[in-house]
Amino acid sequence: MRSITTLDLQYAHRFYGFKGEAQYLHGHTGKLTIEVEDSIESGVNLVFPCNEIQKTAWEVLKNFDHVLILREDDPLLPAILKVYEEQGIKNGAPTNKMKGPAFKTDLATAYPDCRIVVTKETMTVEGMIKIVYDLLKDKLNIAKLTFTSGVNAATQEYEPAKTIDRCPLCGIALNENGVCPKCGYKK
Hints:
Blueprint: E1 2-13, E2 26-37, H1 50-61, E3 67-71, H2 76-87, E4 103-104, E5 108-111, E6 116-119, H3 125-136, E7 142-149, E8 152-157
Parallel strand pairs: 1-3, 3-6
Antiparallel strand pairs: 1-2, 2-7, 4-5, 5-6, 7-8
């Protein structure tokens, strides 16, 4: 069975090297749907609490909200970083509170202090799915990801192969010590 939740992401990007309207810097409201598959945890009669899926995903994905996403070879990137440096916001500002931990993967690098994500490939809906799966595959038993942005949409199904020990009282994943981070249950 599956638990399904959605997240909204506001971001700006452009398709560097693309010959069309998307070559210009523009913004989107994207909707990410995450489907998590597992057995039903009998104590709570659910697969995984949707609010806990959101919390787990949001910890990393908030780096994609109200952010500029550029490809690593985009000539706009050094220009924007120069302006941010001149404005004194490249290394963060007191009002920059909605940020997750910095990360670097083969597909993307997040610089949360300056609200920029740098990607290896052009940031398309398909590219976003690849990045999200890479970031969350070890945290959630993802069965399907769908990302829509404007009139564009993509979806990818996965074979959930991970066994995640979950709390029989809350349904959320136990930590590495077998303890529920929400209610304190110990395995």
